[in-house]
Every structure is written in structure tokens, then in C-alpha cells.
């Protein structure tokens, strides 16, 4: 196979077929398909590619395409989940919650407090934070209990 160096435009030619080079310097499924087509077009008709080798390349191409599709589907799922997490946590506004903070890392001593949630936001790292009635932002992973026992008792009476 004859691979020529990339011209200034960002394309390279393999056996006379132009193959675009992705901006991130990784080959995509379209590039693999172009390479495979170029290989088939330029093979020696008296000594064609071995059937097993061709089937193996097609299987690899199919796997690559399926992995790409699965990666895109997973990314869409993560994006939707992250978008709905803020809405789900907003249901805590006006609710008294029990939350914990680590006092001593060596003994893993946790101190708990109860506060009302006033607001919910997503920080720059993508984590959900809750604004408490004392003016402090806590990470949603610090929540220990929602819907405290004394609130349930008051609702029953």
C-alpha cells in the first residue's frame, strides 16, 4: 500500500484516493471505509485479497461502527441524565434535609445538621449543589435524609 505524506490541505492520498484527515488526528469510520474501498479497487486481480482477511476487515469495520454508535448513544444518555438531575433536585426546594459533613478524615467522623433547601444549581464541574437556609452551598452527595421524621409526624397529626 502506497501512503503519501499529507499535503498542506490536511488530506492524504492512499493509492491515489484522497482520505481526509480528521482534525483530532484520529481515523474515523469513514476513513476506514475509504481505505478498505481503495484497497479493493487497487488489488491485483490475479492475486486478490484472501477471503478470510477481507471478512476479518469487514468484521473490524462493523465493530468500529457499532462502537461509535454506542458511544454516541451513551453520550446522549449522559447528557439527558445530567439535564434532568437538576430538575429532579429542584424538588427539594422548601424541604428540610439532613446532611453530613466530614469532621475528621482519620476517624471518618461525620457531623449531621438539618436545614431547609432554598435553591439548587449546577456548579462549573457539573455537580449539583444545594443552597441551605444558612446561606451555605453543599454538594448533593452530602445529603443523608430527605423528609425528616418530625415532618412525617406533623403530617400525620
TrEMBL record:
Location of the region described as Disordered in the Swiss-Prot/TrEMBL record: 1-22
InterPro entries, sorted: FlgD
One Gene Ontology term from the biological process aspect of the record: bacterial-type flagellum organization
Chain segments annotated as transmembrane: none
Gene transcribed to yield this protein: flgD
Originating species: Salicibibacter halophilus
Taxonomy, superkingdom: Bacteria
Family: Belongs to the FlgD family.
Protein name: Flagellar hook assembly protein FlgD
Pfam family, one: FlgD
Keywords from the named record: Bacterial flagellum biogenesis, Cell projection, Cilium, Flagellum
